[in-house]
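User: Okay, second chain of the day. Same drill as before: sequence in, structure tokens out.
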Amino acid sequence: MPAVNPVRLRFQSEGLMAFFHSPSEFHSRLNSLFDLYANHALRFGEESGVKPVLPMYHLPQPVLRQLKSDLNSHIQKFPEAALSLADELWDDNYYEVKQLAIHILGDIPIDTPDAIINRLNEWVKPGLDSKLVSDLFSIGIMKLQEHYPEFWEGYIKSLLVQESPEKLALGIKGLREGLKNPKFNNLPTIFRLLSPILQSPSPSIVKELEKLIRALIEESPTETSFYIKQLLAINESQKTKRLIKQCLPAFPPAHRDEIKSMLDQ
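Assistant: Same drill. Structure tokens below.
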């Protein structure tokens, strides 16, 4: 892996942008550039606690930053060409190349949400690398969530109504990532989407539900406590109670005691 020379890197990135309108040629040259800067001793993902799924180049961060910066102006000027390029890059096997496809999708000027929704339907599948899922539900879908919240909600709901536990888990992850968006301030939407699932949560999605509830508590313990108490008042499911008990330590003491008393009834 050569040292990153900023001047040389800018020159290489500018040369790559000349092929923005030729997706397959851009893709091929991008792979060559990534191979040049790759850490060949770390070819696969080695994130702590996460089983590697996709091969990785393990690139120096300046390489990705430069490419994303140079891509942005082209994406704004030529959104249709950008979508074609994103489709081409998504078919690659390497994490960083798919990550660039997500960056493009997330930076597309949105006149209609259809282009984003169509790609989410194609790209988000059970078994997809967990980091890519997080990237898609944060970076890739952020503009949709901000500018077309009803379409964002409709897409997430389409996952949450699936019988497949894997797709349900994806929908829950989508809610959790959406909650991280600093411009999102509509917790009632998340509560409303979550309620049908909490009526009798399947054991296969309990871990994802616990992560989401803990994230909701961190975001707003008061609103989440009020929601949980409403839920317990009308729901006697033991599965639901067990899930809430697992989340109790995340609540501040005052809220925790109130909820615990309801669980003990």
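Residues 109 and 206 are 36 Å apart (CA to CA).

User: Thanks, on to the next one.
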